[in-house]
Design goal:
Number of domains: 1
CATH architecture: 2-Layer Sandwich
Distance between the termini: 26 Å
CATH class: Alpha Beta
Helix content: 25-40%
CATH topology: Gyrase A, domain 2
Order of helices and strands: HEEEHHEHEEEEHHEHHH
Shape: globular
Number of strands: 9
Largest sheet: 4 strands, antiparallel
Strand content: 15-25%
Structural class: alpha+beta
Radius of gyration: 21 Å
């Protein structure tokens, strides 16, 4: 499945501020570009354990009639039947988000390279809906909205830092310095893009850790920016595999 065909990812993103050649954003871009994923994929994979070769008859099973089986597998954490599917996303997000995302080693990644291409002057600056004040200690804290002065400081200092860093990056490139060296001056707020391929079981693991959701058996407290990515993943996955998604919710958002 391809969404938004013919429109560049940057054109579809919101919350843009252009300042000369520098662009500042406060969002992420997540696009499902290819998928082979349905609730029926869970059913035929599960039934091979008891039906053997006869499970081939279930490759195109009526998933609605087998919702109970999917719920049983989720509830009792029989995880492998949820692996026989695939989703590929194109994601554009700040590098600090990728550092967290790639800790999930149950996905396949191919990312744009700062060694092989000049990186675009696209930087993340949080908007004023983003809580920025940490209250409490590690493991037991919350984030609260900042004051007008704090938001102004974030915006002014982050923008100035990004402008200065990118100007230094260009000066080094113009001086003949290799891209892999010049990029070292850039902050982690610069955007990078990658393809991410994973199956439903891997995705459920990601969602269980990277979303704060009501009804979760094990509450999670993710950084807001990676949660924005997770929200888009879940939106697309719930459309592709609605019965599996409903069972995930029903059973406390615990990855099987």
């Amino acid at each position: 499945m391809v969404s938004g065909l013919g429109i560049s990812p940057l054109a579809r993103l919101a919350s843009v501020t252009n300042e000369g050649e520098i662009t500042f954003r406060s969002d992420v871009h997540v696009e499902l570009v290819r998928a082979s994923a349905s609730d029926a994929d869970v059913i035929f994979a599960a039934r091979v354990s008891t039906a053997g070769e006869q499970s081939l008859d279930d490759v195109h099973a009526d998933a609605d009639r087998s919702a109970g089986l999917i719920n049983y597998l989720m509830r009792d954490r029989h995880g492998s039947p949820f692996e026989h599917n695939s989703m590929t996303f194109f994601v554009r997000a700040p590098i600090f988000v990728w550092r967290e995302h790639m800790r999930h080693r149950i996905a396949s990644y191919n990312e744009e390279s700062g060694r092989y291409r000049q990186l675009e002057p696209l930087f993340y600056v949080p908007d004023r809906d983003r809580p920025v004040v940490q209250v409490g200690k590690t493991g037991a804290y919350e984030f609260l909205p900042g004051s007008e002065e704090q938001y102004e400081l974030i915006e002014s200092d982050m923008r100035e830092s990004c402008r200065s860093a990118y100007a230094s990056y260009l000066r080094m490139l113009d001086a003949g310095i290799a891209r892999e060296v010049a990029r070292m001056v850039l902050p982690v707020s610069i955007y990078s893009s990658a393809y991410v391929t994973l199956n439903a079981r891997s995705l459920m693991n990601f969602l269980s850790l990277r979303m704060k959701a009501e009804g979760s058996h094990f509450p999670s407290y993710p950084q807001r920016e990676i949660e924005m990515v997770a929200e888009r993943y879940e939106e697309e996955w719930s459309r592709l595999m609605p019965i599996t998604h409903a069972a995930f919710i029903k059973n406390g958002r615990v990855a099987p």
